[in-house]
C-alpha cells in the first residue's frame, strides 16, 4: 500500500511538473526569474524564414548528423559508447568531447520530437538511451574514454589523463539533453541516467580538492546541474551549483583562458576562451535565477557591458583571437605570461580576417543572453539573441544544413599570406573539432522556444516569425495566437488572437533596439502612445477571437560604423537591414579584383530584391561601389594615395549568414566608403 502511495505521488508530481516546466529552461518556479519558458511543443513554425530553417533541420541537418555520428569510419562517437558498454572490444577514438557532441545531437532530436511527435525519432532515442544505461558505471559516472580503458585497458593511463579535460563538459550536455528529452516525451529513462550523473558529481565535488576540480573546462555542467535541480527538485543539486562557483578561481594554477585565475565574484570583464566564458556566464545566470545572489548578477551585468560595448562583433560573434596573451594576466614576464586561445581579447580588439568567433561561442552568447532575458525581462538581451541567431549562428552551417564552419570570420582574402588553423570553406565533418555542428543542430531545433516567454504580467513576444502558439498562461488559462510575417525581410508582423483568457491579457511586443519609427495597431486602429526602441511595448486589454495586433517595424538599409577605437575598421562601414548583417562576395567583382579594393558609395539608393540560393528565399541589397584602379600590392606595404579615377561597379550584397554557399571565394562585411 505504501509503495502504491509513493508511486502515485511520483506520478502526480511528474504530471504537475510537466504541465508547468516543458521549455528549454524549467524556470517557472525560479524565484528570481521574471520570465519563464513556454513549452517546447507550444510553438510551431508555419511558413517563412524559420519554417524554412526548421525544414532544413528536420529533413537534412538532424538526419545527416545522426547518421554521421553512427558512422564509425568518420565519427567514432556512437562506437565509443558500444565499446564502453562491452558490446565489442576496441579503443576510444575521437576528441575528448565526442560524448558531449552526441548528446547535443540527441538534444536536438528531442526538441524536434516535441514539435513533430515523429515515432521514429522516439524509437531512435530509446535505443540510444538503452546504450547509455549499459555504459554508465554503478556510481553514476559516464565518460567513454575512461570507461573503455577500465573495461579493455586499450588507452593507457597517460592517454586517459589527456581525455579528462572535457569529462564534466560531456556530463553537462548529458544532463541538459536528458531534461529536454523528459519534457519532450514524458519519459524518465534518460532522466534517471542523468540523476546518476548528477549524484556522482555531487559526491565528487564534496571530496575533490580545488586543484582536482579545476580540470573541468568548458563548463556546460553549470547549466546542466541547475536544470537537474529545476527538474527533479533535489536541493543538493543547487548546493552543487553554488559550490562550483565557490571553488572556481581558488587555486594557484588558474588561468584566464579557463576563467579561474581569480574567483568569479571578482570578475567584472570577459576573459579567456570565449566558449568557456559564455557557457560560464550562462550557468551563473541560471544559478542567480535560483538564489538571487546580487553579486552574481552585478558581475554578469558588468561582463555583459564589456562584451556588448567593447568585445562583440557586429554579427553577435564572440572571441576575436585565435591565440594570444591574456590582457588580464598578472605579469608580462615572458616566463610566466598567460597564453589564451580562441579567446576574448582586449577591448575593441576586433580583427576581421583573423577573427576566431567560434560558432559554439556565438551559441554561448545566445544561451547567456536568453537567461539574462528570463531573469530581467529587458529587451536588450533579446536583441542580442536575435542578432547572434540570424548572423553568427546561422553562418555556422550552409543553407542546405549539411556543412559547417568552426569559426566565422568577417573578411576572407585570398592574398592573406598564411593559412589559418580553420579553413574558410564549410565541411561536412571537421576532424577533431566538430563540436560546432552538433551545437548548431540542437540550437536551430530549439529556436521556437525563444519566440515567446510568459510572466505573471502576460505574454512576451521575443522573436518574430510565422508560427502558431498554443500555450497556457501562468494562471493556467489557454492562450492561442497565430503570428504572420515575412520577417526578417519585412517588418510587418500580425498577431491574431485565436483564444485568450476572459479577463485582461497583456502582450509585450519587443521593439528591437535597431528599429526606429515602430507603429502598433489593434484591429486597424493605430496606437498613439510613444513607442520606444529597445523595450517591450505593453498592450493590456480584454481580447476576443479574431482580434489582430499589428506591429510595423521600418527596415531601411543602414550603414553602420564602429567605435573609432576599433582600429581594424576605421573609416569603413558595414551594411545592415533590420537584424540582418550583409556582406560582399567576390563573385560580384571583375577578375583579379579583391573585395578589399571595393569602395562603397554611401549615397547609393540601396534597393532590395529577392533571390533564391540553394532552395532558400533570401533578400539581396543592390549597391553602387567603386573599384580602385591602382590595386596592385605586390612587394608593397605602403604607397602614395592614387589620383587615378576609380571604376564604378554595381554589386549585390547578401546576408552574412549565406556567404560561402556559391563556392570558394572572398568575402567582407566591412568596406571603405
Can you summarize this structure?
Helices cover 37% and strands 18% of the residues. The chain is an alpha+beta fold and 673 residues long.
Could you characterize the architecture of this molecule?
This protein has 673 residues and is an alpha+beta fold. The chain is 37% helix and 18% strand. It is built from 17 helices and 24 strands. Strands 5, 16, 17, 18, 19, 20, 21, 22, 23 and 24 form a 10-stranded antiparallel beta sheet that branches. A 7-stranded antiparallel beta sheet has the order 2-8-9-10-15-12-13. The protein has a 5-stranded mixed beta sheet with strand order 1-6-7-11-14. A hairpin with a 6-residue loop joins β9 and β10.
Helix-strand layout with pairing:
Elements: H1 2-20, E1 36-37, E2 43-45, H2 49-68, H3 77-84, H4 98-116, H5 119-135, H6 144-152, H7 157-162, H8 167-185, H9 189-207, H10 210-213, H11 220-232, H12 235-247, H13 274-291, H14 294-311, E3 321-325, E4 339-343, H15 359-376, H16 379-393, E5 411-412, H17 436-446, E6 452-454, E7 458-461, E8 467-472, E9 478-485, E10 492-499, E11 505-511, E12 519-522, E13 525-526, E14 535-541, E15 548-552, E16 557-560, E17 572-577, E18 580-585, E19 598-600, E20 607-613, E21 616-627, E22 647-655, E23 667-668, E24 670-672
Parallel strand pairs: 7-11
Antiparallel strand pairs: 1-6, 2-8, 3-4, 5-23, 6-7, 8-9, 9-10, 10-15, 11-14, 12-13, 12-15, 16-17, 17-18, 17-24, 18-22, 18-23, 19-21, 20-21, 21-22
Helix pairs in contact: 2-4, 2-17, 3-4, 3-6, 4-5, 4-8, 4-17, 8-9, 8-11, 9-12, 11-12, 11-13, 13-14, 13-15, 15-16
Amino acid at each position: 500500500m505504501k509503495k502504491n502511495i509513493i508511486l502515485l505521488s511520483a506520478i502526480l508530481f511528474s504530471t504537475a511538473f510537466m504541465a508547468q516546466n516543458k521549455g528549454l529552461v524549467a524556470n517557472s518556479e525560479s524565484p528570481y526569474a521574471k520570465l519563464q519558458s513556454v513549452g517546447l511543443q507550444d510553438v510551431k513554425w508555419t511558413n517563412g524564414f524559420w519554417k524554412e530553417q526548421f525544414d532544413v533541420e528536420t529533413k537534412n541537418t538532424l538526419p545527416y548528423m545522426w547518421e554521421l555520428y553512427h558512422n564509425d569510419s568518420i565519427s567514432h562517437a556512437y562506437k565509443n559508447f558500444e565499446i564502453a558498454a562491452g558490446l565489442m572490444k576496441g579503443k576510444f577514438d575521437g576528441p575528448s568531447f565526442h560524448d558531449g557532441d552526441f548528446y547535443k545531437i540527441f538534444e536536438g532530436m528531442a526538441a524536434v520530437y516535441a514539435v513533430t511527435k515523429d515515432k521514429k525519432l522516439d524509437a531512435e532515442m530509446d535505443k540510444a538511451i538503452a546504450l547509455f544505461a549499459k555504459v554508465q558505471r554503478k556510481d553514476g559516472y559516464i565518460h567513454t574514454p575512461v570507461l573503455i580503458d577500465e573495461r579493455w585497458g586499450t588507452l593507457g593511463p597517460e592517454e586517459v589523463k589527456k581525455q579528462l579535460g572535457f569529462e564534466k563538459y560531456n556530463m553537462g550536455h548529458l544532463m541538459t539533453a536528458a531534461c529536454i528529452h523528459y519534457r519532450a516525451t514524458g519519459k524518465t529513462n534518460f532522466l534517471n541516467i542523468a540523476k546518476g550523473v548528477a549524484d556522482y558529481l555531487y559526491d565528487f565535488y564534496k571530496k575533490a580538492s580545488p586543484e582536482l576540480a579545476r580540470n573541468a573546462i568548458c563548463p556546460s555542467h553549470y547549466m546542466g546541474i541547475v536544470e537537474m535541480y529545476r527538474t527533479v527538485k533535489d536541493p543538493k543539486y543547487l548546493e552543487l551549483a553554488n559550490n562550483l562557483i565557490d571553488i572556481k578561481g581558488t587555486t594557484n594554477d588558474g588561468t584566464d583562458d579557463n576563467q579561474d585565475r581569480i574567483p568569479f565574484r571578482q570578475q567584472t570583464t570577459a576573459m579567456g576562451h570565449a566558449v568557456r566564458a559564455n557557457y560560464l556566464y550562462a550557468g551563473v545566470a541560471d544559478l542567480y535565477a535560483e538564489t538571487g545572489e546580487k553579486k552574481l548578477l552585478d558581475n554578469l551585468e558588468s561582463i555583459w557591458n564589456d562584451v556588448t560595448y567593447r568585445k562583440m562583433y557586429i554579427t553577435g560573434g564572440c572571441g576575436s583571437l585565435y591565440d594570444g596573451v591574456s590582457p588580464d594576466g598578472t605579469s608580462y614576464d615572458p616566463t610566466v605570461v598567460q597564453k589564451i586561445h580562441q579567446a576574448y581579447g582586449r577591448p575593441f580588439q576586433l580583427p576581421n580576417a583573423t577573427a576566431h568567433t567560434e560558432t559554439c561561442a556565438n551559441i554561448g552568447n545566445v544561451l547567456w543572453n536568453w537567461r539574462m532575458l528570463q531573469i530581467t525581462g529587458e529587451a536588450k538581451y533579446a536583441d542580442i539573441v536575435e542578432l547572434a541567431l540570424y548572423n553568427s549562428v546561422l553562418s555556422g552551417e550552409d543553407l542546405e544544413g549539411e556543412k559547417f564552419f568552426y569559426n566565422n570570420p568577417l573578411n576572407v582574402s585570398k592574398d592573406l599570406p598564411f593559412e589559418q588553423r580553420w579553413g574558410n570553406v564549410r565541411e561536412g565533418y571537421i576532424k577533431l573539432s566538430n563540436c560546432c555542428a552538433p551545437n548548431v543542430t540542437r540550437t536551430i531545433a530549439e529556436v521556437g522556444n525563444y519566440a515567446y516567454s510568459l510572466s505573471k504580467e502576460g505574454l512576451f513576444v521575443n522573436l518574430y516569425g510565422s508560427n502558431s502558439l498554443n500555450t497556457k498562461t501562468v494562471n493556467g488559462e489557454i492562450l492561442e495566437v497565430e503570428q504572420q510575417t515575412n520577417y526578417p525581410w519585412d517588418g510587418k508582423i500580425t498577431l491574431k488572437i485565436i483564444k485568450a483568457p476572459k479577463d485582461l491579457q497583456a502582450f509585450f511586443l519587443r521593439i528591437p533596439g535597431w528599429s526606429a519609427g515602430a507603429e502598433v495597431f489593434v484591429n486597424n486602429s493605430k496606437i498613439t502612445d510613444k513607442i520606444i526602441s529597445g523595450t517591450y511595448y505593453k498592450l493590456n486589454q480584454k481580447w476576443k477571437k479574431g482580434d489582430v495586433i499589428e506591429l510595423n517595424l521600418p527596415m531601411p538599409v543602414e550603414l553602420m560604423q564602429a567605435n573609432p577605437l576599433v582600429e581594424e575598421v576605421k573609416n569603413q562601414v558595414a551594411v545592415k537591414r533590420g537584424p540582418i548583417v550583409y556582406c560582399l562576395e567576390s563573385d560580384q567583382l571583375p577578375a583579379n579584383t579583391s573585395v578589399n579594393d571595393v569602395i562603397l558609395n554611401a549615397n547609393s539608393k540601396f534597393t532590395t530584391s529577392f533571390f533564391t540560393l540553394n532552395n532558400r528565399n533570401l533578400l539581396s541589397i543592390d549597391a553602387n561601389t567603386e573599384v580602385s584602379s591602382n590595386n596592385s600590392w605586390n612587394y608593397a606595404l605602403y604607397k602614395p594615395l592614387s589620383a587615378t579615377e576609380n571604376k564604378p561597379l554595381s554589386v549585390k550584397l547578401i546576408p552574412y549568414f549565406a556567404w560561402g554557399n556559391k563556392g570558394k571565394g572572398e568575402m567582407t562585411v566591412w568596406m571603405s566608403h
